[in-house]
Write the C-alpha coordinates for this entry.
Amino acid sequence: MTPTWAQVVDLAVAVAFILTLKGLSSPRTARTGVRIGSIGALVAVIAVFFATRELNHLPWIIAVIVVGSVIGIVAARRVAMTAMPQLVALFNGVGGGAAAIVAAVEFHVATEKDVLFLTATAFTAAIGSISLTGSVVTFLKLQELMTGRPVVLPGGRFLTIAIALLTLGFAVTVIATGSLPALIGLLIASLILGVLFVLPVGGADVPIVISLLNAFTGLAVAAGGLVLSNTLLLVAGTLVGASGTLLTRMMAQAMGRPLTSTLFGAFTARAAAAGGGGAENRPVRSGTPDDIAIMLGYASKVIIVPGYGLAVAQAQQALREVADLLTARGVSVSYAIHPVAGRMPGHMNVLLAEADVPYDMLAESEVINPEFAATDVALVVGANDVVNPAARTDPTSPIYGMPIVDADRAAQVVFIKRSMRPGFAGVENELLFDPRTTLLFGDAKDALTKVAARLKAS
Amino acid sequence: MSEPIALLTIFVLSVFVGFEVISKVSAVLHTPLMSGANAIHGIVLIGAVIVTGHAEAPTVTVLGLIAVLLATINLVGGFAVTERMLEMFRPRQPRPVSADQQRGTAA
Protein backbone atom coordinates (compact mmCIF):
# COMPACT_ATOMS: atom_id res chain seq x y z
CA MET A 1 0.00 0.00 0.00
CA THR A 2 0.93 3.66 0.13
CA PRO A 3 4.08 4.23 2.20
CA THR A 4 3.65 6.13 5.46
CA TRP A 5 5.66 9.16 4.34
CA ALA A 6 3.35 9.57 1.37
CA GLN A 7 0.31 9.46 3.64
CA VAL A 8 1.86 12.21 5.74
CA VAL A 9 2.44 14.23 2.57
CA ASP A 10 -1.20 13.69 1.61
CA LEU A 11 -2.28 14.99 5.01
CA ALA A 12 -0.14 18.11 4.59
CA VAL A 13 -1.58 18.70 1.12
CA ALA A 14 -5.12 18.26 2.44
CA VAL A 15 -4.38 20.96 5.04
CA ALA A 16 -2.96 23.16 2.27
CA PHE A 17 -6.26 22.85 0.39
CA ILE A 18 -8.25 23.75 3.51
CA LEU A 19 -6.04 26.83 3.91
CA THR A 20 -6.66 27.69 0.25
CA LEU A 21 -10.42 27.75 0.72
CA LYS A 22 -10.03 29.59 4.01
CA GLY A 23 -7.72 32.15 2.40
CA LEU A 24 -10.14 32.69 -0.47
CA SER A 25 -12.79 33.89 1.97
CA SER A 26 -11.04 37.24 2.47
CA PRO A 27 -9.48 39.64 -0.05
CA ARG A 28 -6.45 40.08 2.20
CA THR A 29 -5.50 36.40 2.29
CA ALA A 30 -6.84 35.21 -1.05
CA ARG A 31 -3.57 35.34 -2.98
CA THR A 32 -1.60 33.62 -0.24
CA GLY A 33 -4.26 30.93 -0.07
CA VAL A 34 -4.03 30.20 -3.77
CA ARG A 35 -0.22 30.05 -3.58
CA ILE A 36 -0.41 27.54 -0.74
CA GLY A 37 -2.89 25.45 -2.69
CA SER A 38 -0.86 25.40 -5.88
CA ILE A 39 2.31 24.45 -4.01
CA GLY A 40 0.37 21.73 -2.22
CA ALA A 41 -0.93 20.38 -5.52
CA LEU A 42 2.57 20.38 -6.99
CA VAL A 43 3.98 18.50 -3.99
CA ALA A 44 1.16 15.95 -4.16
CA VAL A 45 1.75 15.29 -7.86
CA ILE A 46 5.52 14.88 -7.42
CA ALA A 47 4.98 12.61 -4.41
CA VAL A 48 2.67 10.26 -6.30
CA PHE A 49 5.49 9.36 -8.70
CA PHE A 50 7.73 8.30 -5.83
CA ALA A 51 5.05 6.71 -3.69
CA THR A 52 3.48 4.48 -6.35
CA ARG A 53 5.50 1.42 -7.18
CA GLU A 54 5.99 0.08 -10.69
CA LEU A 55 4.53 2.91 -12.71
CA ASN A 56 4.32 2.04 -16.39
CA HIS A 57 4.32 4.52 -19.25
CA LEU A 58 6.22 7.05 -17.15
CA PRO A 59 7.63 9.11 -20.07
CA TRP A 60 4.16 9.28 -21.61
CA ILE A 61 2.53 10.38 -18.38
CA ILE A 62 5.08 13.13 -17.86
CA ALA A 63 4.83 14.28 -21.47
CA VAL A 64 1.04 14.49 -21.22
CA ILE A 65 1.26 16.42 -17.93
CA VAL A 66 3.58 18.92 -19.62
CA VAL A 67 1.18 19.32 -22.54
CA GLY A 68 -1.80 19.69 -20.20
CA SER A 69 0.03 22.31 -18.12
CA VAL A 70 0.86 24.34 -21.20
CA ILE A 71 -2.76 24.19 -22.39
CA GLY A 72 -4.04 25.17 -18.95
CA ILE A 73 -1.65 28.07 -18.45
CA VAL A 74 -2.04 29.45 -21.96
CA ALA A 75 -5.84 29.26 -21.72
CA ALA A 76 -5.81 30.93 -18.29
CA ARG A 77 -3.43 33.72 -19.36
CA ARG A 78 -4.93 34.41 -22.77
CA VAL A 79 -8.61 34.41 -21.91
CA ALA A 80 -10.34 37.79 -21.86
CA MET A 81 -11.53 38.79 -18.42
CA THR A 82 -15.09 38.73 -19.76
CA ALA A 83 -14.77 35.09 -20.78
CA MET A 84 -13.45 33.91 -17.42
CA PRO A 85 -16.65 32.28 -16.16
CA GLN A 86 -16.94 29.98 -19.14
CA LEU A 87 -13.27 29.04 -18.89
CA VAL A 88 -13.82 28.01 -15.28
CA ALA A 89 -16.82 26.00 -16.46
CA LEU A 90 -14.68 24.26 -19.04
CA PHE A 91 -11.90 23.48 -16.54
CA ASN A 92 -14.53 22.08 -14.24
CA GLY A 93 -15.99 19.92 -16.99
CA VAL A 94 -12.68 18.35 -17.98
CA GLY A 95 -12.02 17.61 -14.30
CA GLY A 96 -15.32 15.77 -14.11
CA GLY A 97 -14.46 13.88 -17.29
CA ALA A 98 -11.09 12.89 -15.83
CA ALA A 99 -12.77 11.57 -12.68
CA ALA A 100 -15.24 9.51 -14.73
CA ILE A 101 -12.43 8.00 -16.83
CA VAL A 102 -10.35 7.20 -13.74
CA ALA A 103 -13.28 5.33 -12.19
CA ALA A 104 -14.05 3.47 -15.41
CA VAL A 105 -10.44 2.41 -15.92
CA GLU A 106 -10.03 1.28 -12.32
CA PHE A 107 -13.30 -0.66 -12.63
CA HIS A 108 -11.96 -2.42 -15.72
CA VAL A 109 -8.65 -3.49 -14.17
CA ALA A 110 -9.63 -4.06 -10.52
CA THR A 111 -9.81 -7.68 -9.37
CA GLU A 112 -11.61 -7.24 -6.06
CA LYS A 113 -14.89 -5.39 -6.32
CA ASP A 114 -16.94 -5.02 -3.15
CA VAL A 115 -20.15 -3.06 -2.87
CA LEU A 116 -18.43 0.10 -1.64
CA PHE A 117 -16.08 0.00 -4.62
CA LEU A 118 -18.90 -0.57 -7.11
CA THR A 119 -21.12 2.13 -5.58
CA ALA A 120 -18.29 4.65 -5.61
CA THR A 121 -17.43 3.71 -9.19
CA ALA A 122 -21.00 4.13 -10.40
CA PHE A 123 -21.26 7.46 -8.56
CA THR A 124 -18.00 8.83 -9.94
CA ALA A 125 -18.78 7.72 -13.48
CA ALA A 126 -22.27 9.21 -13.42
CA ILE A 127 -21.56 12.52 -11.66
CA GLY A 128 -18.27 13.07 -13.50
CA SER A 129 -20.02 12.56 -16.85
CA ILE A 130 -22.93 14.84 -15.96
CA SER A 131 -20.44 17.49 -14.91
CA LEU A 132 -18.51 17.11 -18.18
CA THR A 133 -21.38 17.56 -20.63
CA GLY A 134 -23.28 19.96 -18.36
CA SER A 135 -20.24 22.22 -18.17
CA VAL A 136 -19.75 22.09 -21.92
CA VAL A 137 -23.35 23.29 -22.40
CA THR A 138 -22.85 26.15 -19.89
CA PHE A 139 -19.69 27.05 -21.79
CA LEU A 140 -21.61 27.16 -25.08
CA LYS A 141 -24.32 29.30 -23.48
CA LEU A 142 -21.92 31.82 -21.94
CA GLN A 143 -19.73 31.93 -25.01
CA GLU A 144 -22.92 32.66 -26.94
CA LEU A 145 -22.27 29.77 -29.28
CA MET A 146 -25.84 28.82 -28.48
CA THR A 147 -28.77 30.76 -27.09
CA GLY A 148 -28.61 31.82 -23.46
CA ARG A 149 -32.38 31.48 -23.15
CA PRO A 150 -33.85 28.30 -21.70
CA VAL A 151 -34.01 25.57 -24.34
CA VAL A 152 -37.09 23.44 -23.90
CA LEU A 153 -37.22 20.36 -26.08
CA PRO A 154 -40.64 19.03 -27.03
CA GLY A 155 -41.41 16.49 -24.34
CA GLY A 156 -38.09 17.47 -22.77
CA ARG A 157 -39.41 16.96 -19.29
CA PHE A 158 -40.35 13.33 -19.96
CA LEU A 159 -37.14 12.71 -21.86
CA THR A 160 -35.15 14.02 -18.89
CA ILE A 161 -37.09 11.89 -16.43
CA ALA A 162 -36.66 8.85 -18.69
CA ILE A 163 -32.90 9.36 -19.04
CA ALA A 164 -32.58 10.00 -15.30
CA LEU A 165 -34.36 6.71 -14.59
CA LEU A 166 -32.20 4.95 -17.15
CA THR A 167 -29.07 6.36 -15.48
CA LEU A 168 -30.32 5.14 -12.13
CA GLY A 169 -31.13 1.71 -13.61
CA PHE A 170 -27.63 1.35 -15.07
CA ALA A 171 -26.11 2.49 -11.77
CA VAL A 172 -28.04 -0.16 -9.85
CA THR A 173 -27.04 -2.80 -12.40
CA VAL A 174 -23.38 -1.80 -12.07
CA ILE A 175 -23.57 -2.07 -8.28
CA ALA A 176 -25.45 -5.38 -8.37
CA THR A 177 -23.56 -7.18 -11.12
CA GLY A 178 -20.34 -5.27 -11.75
CA SER A 179 -20.89 -5.69 -15.48
CA LEU A 180 -18.80 -3.60 -17.87
CA PRO A 181 -21.57 -3.06 -20.48
CA ALA A 182 -23.76 -1.64 -17.70
CA LEU A 183 -20.98 0.80 -16.79
CA ILE A 184 -20.65 1.88 -20.41
CA GLY A 185 -24.44 2.35 -20.54
CA LEU A 186 -24.21 4.38 -17.33
CA LEU A 187 -21.53 6.62 -18.82
CA ILE A 188 -23.54 7.27 -21.98
CA ALA A 189 -26.81 7.90 -20.12
CA SER A 190 -25.08 10.31 -17.72
CA LEU A 191 -23.44 12.21 -20.55
CA ILE A 192 -26.88 12.75 -22.11
CA LEU A 193 -28.39 13.62 -18.73
CA GLY A 194 -25.77 16.35 -18.25
CA VAL A 195 -26.89 18.03 -21.47
CA LEU A 196 -30.60 17.71 -20.65
CA PHE A 197 -29.98 19.05 -17.15
CA VAL A 198 -28.43 22.31 -18.33
CA LEU A 199 -30.37 23.01 -21.56
CA PRO A 200 -33.53 24.35 -19.86
CA VAL A 201 -31.54 26.59 -17.50
CA GLY A 202 -32.12 30.24 -18.33
CA GLY A 203 -29.24 32.66 -18.73
CA ALA A 204 -29.39 34.25 -15.29
CA ASP A 205 -29.16 30.86 -13.61
CA VAL A 206 -26.12 29.69 -15.55
CA PRO A 207 -23.55 30.94 -13.00
CA ILE A 208 -25.39 29.05 -10.28
CA VAL A 209 -25.28 25.93 -12.40
CA ILE A 210 -21.53 26.31 -12.97
CA SER A 211 -21.05 26.51 -9.23
CA LEU A 212 -23.28 23.50 -8.74
CA LEU A 213 -21.45 21.43 -11.35
CA ASN A 214 -18.23 22.46 -9.62
CA ALA A 215 -19.55 20.92 -6.42
CA PHE A 216 -20.60 17.85 -8.44
CA THR A 217 -17.08 17.37 -9.79
CA GLY A 218 -15.80 17.69 -6.22
CA LEU A 219 -18.09 14.88 -5.12
CA ALA A 220 -17.11 12.78 -8.15
CA VAL A 221 -13.45 13.21 -7.23
CA ALA A 222 -14.24 12.32 -3.61
CA ALA A 223 -15.95 9.12 -4.74
CA GLY A 224 -12.95 8.53 -7.01
CA GLY A 225 -10.88 8.63 -3.82
CA LEU A 226 -13.04 5.78 -2.48
CA VAL A 227 -12.57 3.83 -5.72
CA LEU A 228 -8.78 4.12 -5.46
CA SER A 229 -8.65 4.10 -1.64
CA ASN A 230 -6.85 7.42 -1.90
CA THR A 231 -7.39 9.69 1.10
CA LEU A 232 -6.21 12.89 -0.57
CA LEU A 233 -8.72 12.58 -3.40
CA LEU A 234 -11.42 11.82 -0.84
CA VAL A 235 -10.61 14.84 1.33
CA ALA A 236 -9.99 17.32 -1.51
CA GLY A 237 -13.08 16.22 -3.42
CA THR A 238 -15.29 16.34 -0.34
CA LEU A 239 -14.01 19.81 0.60
CA VAL A 240 -14.93 21.09 -2.84
CA GLY A 241 -18.24 19.25 -2.83
CA ALA A 242 -19.25 20.71 0.54
CA SER A 243 -17.95 24.24 0.08
CA GLY A 244 -19.21 24.26 -3.51
CA THR A 245 -22.72 23.35 -2.38
CA LEU A 246 -22.69 26.11 0.21
CA LEU A 247 -21.28 28.57 -2.30
CA THR A 248 -24.01 27.64 -4.78
CA ARG A 249 -26.59 28.42 -2.13
CA MET A 250 -24.95 31.76 -1.30
CA MET A 251 -24.85 32.71 -4.98
CA ALA A 252 -28.49 31.76 -5.39
CA GLN A 253 -29.33 33.95 -2.41
CA ALA A 254 -27.30 36.88 -3.73
CA MET A 255 -29.36 36.63 -6.91
CA GLY A 256 -32.62 35.96 -5.13
CA ARG A 257 -33.16 32.73 -7.06
CA PRO A 258 -34.72 29.74 -5.38
CA LEU A 259 -32.17 26.97 -5.80
CA THR A 260 -34.76 24.29 -6.39
CA SER A 261 -36.09 25.96 -9.53
CA THR A 262 -32.57 25.97 -10.94
CA LEU A 263 -31.90 22.39 -9.92
CA PHE A 264 -35.09 20.86 -11.11
CA GLY A 265 -35.76 23.17 -14.01
CA ALA A 266 -35.11 20.24 -16.32
CA PHE A 267 -37.88 18.25 -14.71
CA THR A 268 -40.47 20.98 -14.60
CA ALA A 269 -39.50 22.76 -17.81
CA ARG A 270 -42.29 24.76 -19.32
CA ALA A 271 -42.22 27.02 -22.29
CA ALA A 272 -40.88 30.44 -21.31
CA ALA A 273 -43.31 32.46 -19.20
CA ALA A 274 -45.40 35.22 -20.70
CA GLY A 275 -43.66 38.50 -21.39
CA GLY A 276 -40.48 36.69 -22.35
CA GLY A 277 -39.56 38.63 -25.43
CA GLY A 278 -42.83 38.86 -27.32
CA ALA A 279 -42.49 41.50 -30.02
CA GLU A 280 -43.13 44.69 -28.08
CA ASN A 281 -44.16 47.65 -30.12
CA ARG A 282 -44.58 50.19 -27.38
CA PRO A 283 -42.93 53.55 -27.88
CA VAL A 284 -39.59 54.24 -26.24
CA ARG A 285 -37.67 57.48 -26.12
CA SER A 286 -34.27 57.36 -27.70
CA GLY A 287 -31.67 60.10 -27.63
CA THR A 288 -28.51 61.09 -29.46
CA PRO A 289 -25.05 61.15 -27.88
CA ASP A 290 -25.50 64.94 -27.74
CA ASP A 291 -28.65 64.67 -25.63
CA ILE A 292 -26.98 62.24 -23.28
CA ALA A 293 -23.85 64.38 -22.94
CA ILE A 294 -26.00 67.38 -22.00
CA MET A 295 -28.06 65.39 -19.49
CA LEU A 296 -24.93 64.05 -17.85
CA GLY A 297 -22.87 67.24 -18.08
CA TYR A 298 -25.47 69.38 -16.32
CA ALA A 299 -26.34 66.85 -13.64
CA SER A 300 -24.94 67.22 -10.18
CA LYS A 301 -25.03 63.56 -9.27
CA VAL A 302 -24.65 60.60 -11.63
CA ILE A 303 -24.60 56.93 -10.71
CA ILE A 304 -23.27 54.51 -13.29
CA VAL A 305 -24.73 51.03 -13.39
CA PRO A 306 -22.38 48.85 -15.43
CA GLY A 307 -23.43 45.48 -16.79
CA TYR A 308 -22.13 42.69 -18.90
CA GLY A 309 -22.76 44.57 -22.16
CA LEU A 310 -20.08 47.03 -21.05
CA ALA A 311 -17.57 44.25 -20.71
CA VAL A 312 -18.51 42.61 -23.99
CA ALA A 313 -17.97 45.90 -25.80
CA GLN A 314 -14.63 46.34 -23.97
CA ALA A 315 -15.96 49.76 -23.02
CA GLN A 316 -14.47 50.00 -19.52
CA GLN A 317 -11.85 52.53 -20.62
CA ALA A 318 -14.38 54.63 -22.53
CA LEU A 319 -16.68 54.58 -19.51
CA ARG A 320 -13.85 55.71 -17.28
CA GLU A 321 -13.14 58.57 -19.66
CA VAL A 322 -16.75 59.73 -19.43
CA ALA A 323 -16.61 59.43 -15.65
CA ASP A 324 -13.35 61.40 -15.52
CA LEU A 325 -14.76 64.16 -17.72
CA LEU A 326 -17.85 64.40 -15.53
CA THR A 327 -15.79 64.50 -12.37
CA ALA A 328 -13.67 67.26 -13.89
CA ARG A 329 -16.87 69.26 -14.45
CA GLY A 330 -17.74 68.86 -10.79
CA VAL A 331 -20.36 66.15 -11.24
CA SER A 332 -20.40 63.60 -8.44
CA VAL A 333 -19.92 60.16 -10.04
CA SER A 334 -20.08 56.74 -8.50
CA TYR A 335 -20.64 53.19 -9.70
CA ALA A 336 -23.38 50.91 -8.43
CA ILE A 337 -22.23 47.30 -8.58
CA HIS A 338 -24.91 44.66 -8.44
CA PRO A 339 -23.65 41.49 -6.73
CA VAL A 340 -23.93 39.56 -9.99
CA ALA A 341 -23.21 42.34 -12.47
CA GLY A 342 -21.40 40.68 -15.32
CA ARG A 343 -21.83 36.98 -15.44
CA MET A 344 -20.91 36.04 -11.89
CA PRO A 345 -20.67 37.49 -8.41
CA GLY A 346 -17.66 39.78 -8.28
CA HIS A 347 -17.09 39.64 -12.03
CA MET A 348 -17.75 43.37 -12.60
CA ASN A 349 -15.24 44.36 -9.92
CA VAL A 350 -12.57 42.40 -11.76
CA LEU A 351 -13.49 44.03 -15.07
CA LEU A 352 -13.48 47.58 -13.72
CA ALA A 353 -10.27 47.01 -11.78
CA GLU A 354 -8.74 46.05 -15.12
CA ALA A 355 -9.65 49.53 -16.43
CA ASP A 356 -8.12 51.13 -13.31
CA VAL A 357 -11.41 52.49 -12.04
CA PRO A 358 -10.63 53.61 -8.48
CA TYR A 359 -11.87 51.08 -6.00
CA ASP A 360 -13.52 53.64 -3.71
CA MET A 361 -15.88 54.74 -6.50
CA LEU A 362 -17.44 51.30 -6.61
CA ALA A 363 -20.33 50.69 -4.24
CA GLU A 364 -22.37 47.56 -3.74
CA SER A 365 -25.95 48.08 -4.79
CA GLU A 366 -27.29 47.60 -1.26
CA VAL A 367 -25.10 50.44 -0.04
CA ILE A 368 -25.81 52.89 -2.83
CA ASN A 369 -29.51 52.17 -3.44
CA PRO A 370 -30.76 54.84 -0.99
CA GLU A 371 -28.75 57.45 -2.93
CA PHE A 372 -30.73 57.02 -6.15
CA ALA A 373 -33.60 59.17 -4.89
CA ALA A 374 -31.17 62.12 -4.79
CA THR A 375 -29.56 61.25 -8.11
CA ASP A 376 -30.14 63.22 -11.30
CA VAL A 377 -29.13 60.58 -13.82
CA ALA A 378 -28.67 56.84 -13.52
CA LEU A 379 -26.47 55.79 -16.44
CA VAL A 380 -27.11 52.13 -17.18
CA VAL A 381 -24.47 50.72 -19.50
CA GLY A 382 -25.06 47.28 -20.93
CA ALA A 383 -27.17 46.15 -17.99
CA ASN A 384 -30.80 45.21 -18.02
CA ASP A 385 -32.01 42.52 -15.62
CA VAL A 386 -30.24 44.04 -12.62
CA VAL A 387 -32.24 47.28 -12.93
CA ASN A 388 -35.57 45.65 -13.77
CA PRO A 389 -38.15 46.96 -11.28
CA ALA A 390 -40.29 43.88 -11.95
CA ALA A 391 -38.03 42.12 -9.47
CA ARG A 392 -39.57 44.35 -6.81
CA THR A 393 -43.11 44.78 -8.05
CA ASP A 394 -44.26 41.86 -10.19
CA PRO A 395 -44.68 38.55 -8.34
CA THR A 396 -45.32 36.73 -11.62
CA SER A 397 -41.96 37.76 -13.09
CA PRO A 398 -39.31 35.03 -13.22
CA ILE A 399 -36.86 37.42 -11.57
CA TYR A 400 -39.24 38.47 -8.79
CA GLY A 401 -37.39 38.74 -5.50
CA MET A 402 -33.95 39.28 -6.99
CA PRO A 403 -32.18 42.20 -5.32
CA ILE A 404 -31.80 44.97 -7.91
CA VAL A 405 -30.11 48.30 -8.37
CA ASP A 406 -32.78 50.98 -7.81
CA ALA A 407 -31.90 52.95 -10.94
CA ASP A 408 -35.62 53.60 -11.50
CA ARG A 409 -35.64 55.87 -8.45
CA ALA A 410 -33.29 58.37 -10.06
CA ALA A 411 -34.83 61.50 -11.63
CA GLN A 412 -33.75 60.35 -15.09
CA VAL A 413 -32.48 57.07 -16.45
CA VAL A 414 -30.20 56.64 -19.45
CA PHE A 415 -29.75 53.22 -20.99
CA ILE A 416 -26.92 52.50 -23.37
CA LYS A 417 -28.03 49.29 -25.08
CA ARG A 418 -27.34 47.41 -28.26
CA SER A 419 -31.02 46.78 -28.94
CA MET A 420 -34.41 46.33 -27.34
CA ARG A 421 -33.61 42.67 -26.82
CA PRO A 422 -34.37 41.51 -23.28
CA GLY A 423 -31.41 40.78 -21.03
CA PHE A 424 -29.78 37.52 -20.14
CA ALA A 425 -32.76 36.37 -18.08
CA GLY A 426 -35.01 36.87 -21.11
CA VAL A 427 -37.42 39.13 -19.25
CA GLU A 428 -38.92 42.36 -20.56
CA ASN A 429 -37.88 45.49 -18.62
CA GLU A 430 -40.66 48.01 -17.92
CA LEU A 431 -38.10 50.66 -17.09
CA LEU A 432 -37.18 50.91 -20.77
CA PHE A 433 -40.68 52.23 -21.51
CA ASP A 434 -40.75 54.67 -18.60
CA PRO A 435 -41.22 58.32 -19.68
CA ARG A 436 -38.17 59.31 -17.61
CA THR A 437 -35.97 56.91 -19.54
CA THR A 438 -33.82 57.84 -22.52
CA LEU A 439 -32.22 55.14 -24.62
CA LEU A 440 -29.02 55.43 -26.57
CA PHE A 441 -28.79 52.50 -28.93
CA GLY A 442 -25.44 51.18 -30.01
CA ASP A 443 -22.29 49.41 -29.00
CA ALA A 444 -21.34 50.60 -25.52
CA LYS A 445 -17.79 51.54 -26.42
CA ASP A 446 -18.81 53.42 -29.52
CA ALA A 447 -21.64 55.22 -27.74
CA LEU A 448 -19.53 56.20 -24.73
CA THR A 449 -16.71 57.47 -26.93
CA LYS A 450 -19.20 59.72 -28.73
CA VAL A 451 -20.64 60.95 -25.43
CA ALA A 452 -17.11 61.69 -24.20
CA ALA A 453 -16.34 63.66 -27.37
CA ARG A 454 -19.52 65.78 -26.91
CA LEU A 455 -18.66 66.34 -23.26
CA LYS A 456 -15.22 67.60 -24.23
CA ALA A 457 -16.71 69.89 -26.88
CA SER A 458 -19.36 71.43 -24.68
CA MET B 1 -11.23 0.90 12.57
CA SER B 2 -12.03 -0.95 9.38
CA GLU B 3 -11.08 0.79 6.18
CA PRO B 4 -14.60 1.65 4.95
CA ILE B 5 -15.43 3.18 8.34
CA ALA B 6 -12.17 5.14 8.36
CA LEU B 7 -12.96 6.50 4.89
CA LEU B 8 -16.52 7.35 5.94
CA THR B 9 -15.16 9.21 8.99
CA ILE B 10 -12.81 11.22 6.80
CA PHE B 11 -15.67 11.97 4.41
CA VAL B 12 -18.05 13.22 7.10
CA LEU B 13 -15.40 15.36 8.80
CA SER B 14 -14.37 16.85 5.45
CA VAL B 15 -17.97 17.82 4.73
CA PHE B 16 -18.04 19.85 7.94
CA VAL B 17 -14.68 21.44 7.27
CA GLY B 18 -15.83 22.33 3.75
CA PHE B 19 -18.92 24.05 5.09
CA GLU B 20 -17.18 25.84 7.95
CA VAL B 21 -14.21 27.12 6.06
CA ILE B 22 -16.18 29.32 3.67
CA SER B 23 -19.18 30.19 5.82
CA LYS B 24 -18.42 33.92 5.71
CA VAL B 25 -17.37 35.20 2.33
CA SER B 26 -18.24 38.45 0.56
CA ALA B 27 -19.99 38.31 -2.81
CA VAL B 28 -16.94 39.91 -4.42
CA LEU B 29 -15.01 36.72 -3.74
CA HIS B 30 -17.61 34.22 -4.95
CA THR B 31 -16.08 33.86 -8.40
CA PRO B 32 -12.45 33.47 -7.26
CA LEU B 33 -13.56 31.08 -4.54
CA MET B 34 -15.42 28.93 -7.01
CA SER B 35 -12.44 28.99 -9.32
CA GLY B 36 -10.06 28.04 -6.49
CA ALA B 37 -12.30 25.15 -5.45
CA ASN B 38 -12.43 24.15 -9.10
CA ALA B 39 -8.63 23.99 -9.20
CA ILE B 40 -8.53 21.86 -6.07
CA HIS B 41 -10.60 19.06 -7.55
CA GLY B 42 -8.07 18.93 -10.36
CA ILE B 43 -6.08 16.86 -7.87
CA VAL B 44 -7.90 13.94 -9.49
CA LEU B 45 -4.71 14.07 -11.59
CA ILE B 46 -3.13 11.87 -8.92
CA GLY B 47 -5.77 9.23 -9.51
CA ALA B 48 -5.26 9.52 -13.25
CA VAL B 49 -1.49 9.04 -12.85
CA ILE B 50 -2.01 5.97 -10.66
CA VAL B 51 -4.46 4.20 -12.98
CA THR B 52 -2.42 5.02 -16.07
CA GLY B 53 0.76 3.82 -14.39
CA HIS B 54 -0.88 0.50 -13.67
CA ALA B 55 -2.49 0.12 -17.08
CA GLU B 56 -1.33 -2.63 -19.43
CA ALA B 57 -3.76 -2.89 -22.32
CA PRO B 58 -3.22 -0.12 -24.90
CA THR B 59 -6.84 1.09 -24.87
CA VAL B 60 -6.75 1.43 -21.10
CA THR B 61 -3.44 3.27 -21.30
CA VAL B 62 -4.80 5.71 -23.85
CA LEU B 63 -7.91 6.32 -21.74
CA GLY B 64 -5.71 6.86 -18.71
CA LEU B 65 -3.54 9.34 -20.57
CA ILE B 66 -6.64 11.26 -21.67
CA ALA B 67 -7.64 11.44 -18.00
CA VAL B 68 -4.14 12.70 -17.13
CA LEU B 69 -4.44 15.40 -19.79
CA LEU B 70 -7.91 16.56 -18.70
CA ALA B 71 -7.00 16.52 -15.00
CA THR B 72 -3.80 18.50 -15.63
CA ILE B 73 -5.74 21.15 -17.54
CA ASN B 74 -8.19 21.36 -14.64
CA LEU B 75 -5.49 21.58 -11.97
CA VAL B 76 -2.93 23.86 -13.62
CA GLY B 77 -5.40 26.01 -15.55
CA GLY B 78 -7.63 26.29 -12.49
CA PHE B 79 -4.88 27.67 -10.27
CA ALA B 80 -3.57 29.95 -13.02
CA VAL B 81 -6.96 31.49 -13.73
CA THR B 82 -7.68 31.99 -10.02
CA GLU B 83 -4.33 33.70 -9.59
CA ARG B 84 -5.21 36.01 -12.48
CA MET B 85 -8.59 36.91 -11.01
CA LEU B 86 -6.95 37.82 -7.75
CA GLU B 87 -4.58 40.31 -9.31
CA MET B 88 -7.28 42.88 -8.55
CA PHE B 89 -6.67 42.46 -4.83
CA ARG B 90 -3.09 43.56 -5.11
CA PRO B 91 -2.60 46.75 -3.08
CA ARG B 92 -3.41 49.59 -5.46
CA GLN B 93 -0.39 51.56 -6.58
CA PRO B 94 0.17 53.47 -9.75
CA ARG B 95 1.14 50.58 -11.92
CA PRO B 96 2.48 50.46 -15.44
CA VAL B 97 -0.02 49.65 -18.16
CA SER B 98 0.13 45.90 -18.56
CA ALA B 99 0.18 44.09 -21.87
CA ASP B 100 -3.30 42.96 -21.01
CA GLN B 101 -4.69 46.44 -20.85
CA GLN B 102 -3.03 47.42 -24.06
CA ARG B 103 -4.81 44.54 -25.71
CA GLY B 104 -8.02 45.66 -24.05
CA THR B 105 -7.79 49.18 -25.42
CA ALA B 106 -6.71 48.08 -28.85
CA ALA B 107 -9.65 45.70 -29.19
Summary: Residues 115-142 of chain A form the longest helix (28 residues). Confidence is low (pLDDT under 50) at residues 269-280 of chain A. Chain A touches chain B through 112 residues (CB under 8 Å).
